[in-house]
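Why this split exists: single-chain examples teach little about how molecules sit against one another. For that reason, every record in the complexes split bundles all components of an assembly together and asks for one structure covering all of them. Below is a record exactly as it appears in the raw files.
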Amino acid sequence: MTRTSRGPRLLSAIAVAWLTVAALATPAGAHEGEESVPALTQVQVAVAILRTQPEQVDLAADRINDATEAEDKDGVDIDRVEQAKSALEAGDMAKTELLLEQALGACPGQPVTNPAGVRAKLPQTPCPTPAHELALGRVPLHGAAKPTLLALGAVLTLGGLVLTWRIR
Amino acid sequence: MSDTTVDRPLAEPPPVSRRQRLVDALDERLGLKALQYPIPAHANTLAYSLGGLSLISFVLMVATGIFLTQYYNPDPAAAHESVRHIITGVTLGGFVRGFHYWGSMAMIVLVGLHLLRVFASASFKRPREGNWVIGVALAALTAGLFFTGSVLKWDQESLEALEHNIEIGKLLGKFGFWFSDTFGGIPLLTRLYVVHISVLPALFTLAVAVHLLLVKRHGMAPSPFGDRAKDTGPEPTRPFTRHLAELGVLGLVLVGVLTLLAVLLPPAHGPAPIEGIEVTKPPWPLLWVYPVEDWIGVVGILWATLAIFAALLVVPLVDRSPELHPRRRLPVVIGAGVVVALIIGLIIYAAVRPVASHISM
């Protein structure tokens, strides 16, 4: 083996070994029937989909269906999940997400002041009327600030690169 | 005797420019010319400027952080709303927050690359082992600054990060008392804010000062790469002030790139945190522990983090040969390569995995 060929072979061996470990270490639940996945997990994934990929409505609907059919329904208010299913069919995404969160015992709208031990018990008092603040997304700059800052950034970047080249 | 002295024509002193007089006046009072000590030419390369750029990133974080503290409210009931106000209601608030966000990413990357460069060029070897340990401490402080900063925005991801922090505090037993939300009677978020804006920056500044003093004390480490490896005679030197000038222009590029990123890709702000759900993943620099947590639980975060820093700390003890070039230190270099590949692989794997609940409800 020549010295030059050792590096790529070594990298390939590391990549294969890592992929093997990753594949073997995948949680068993990923390969089991959907009914064996707890309703809690299904609802959490549905909430995550609605929050991060709201365009994937079908994916969220599948998870909600799977939650209602799960064998293990511990810690989930299935009535709320059924209501969420109806809300999703009606196209009301905000209500769907709210109902799913409440199905897990979460209190949207209630300020979080003490996160310690929060998962130990479901809320003892009814949740307040939710002033549900959804994600803000990317807020672009308006007015003259945007072109001014873009020009400044471009001048600093290009000017810095030119100076770096000239100073060496 | 005195007559002959008077009769001899005096040599005209060379004209001194106004700029030179200013430099001399400043040097007399501040000792600026002491910075003109010689350093090897290889120090004026990008690879050997990564440490300086990391420090520039830190300074930029302090400057933008001072702006953000004027509007941020560290009370858990008001923190999320105050961040929204910074983005939507404060003049250039969204831009400064974006600059701070991208600057923190840059700092993480630059510190990581600086660490890898020092490892690759064996710059940690005798007599620089102590400075390597301080460098590892600086990397840990950088990680701490990043983590606490990611909690302060107080969206769903932040709450879940803090809940994991509390769980890890419990694993530490008596030593984790500080992470309890009941300690001190002040909410943990508020105390993390104090840590983010004062404790960690103060420790970072102190450690950087010692780091730089030791670099000065030991001199710039030799480079095993390029012509220097061929031993073609003494390496040319340049004044340190030249290195500072080059660092300054690289800093301009950094500021320019961060400005463009803050304008073109302003960071989003997640929804207000809700207790009882776990539906997010950590930001990418912390994502490598996510699969570890999948496999062995929250304790995996603690052990994986301790393992990485312990491995970094013992590097000077494991790699003690006088060899500098990576090719002549293959076992150690391969070991490090495997660790780096594993971390990158874990980040990619976690990014494509669905979210999972780790803290039992």
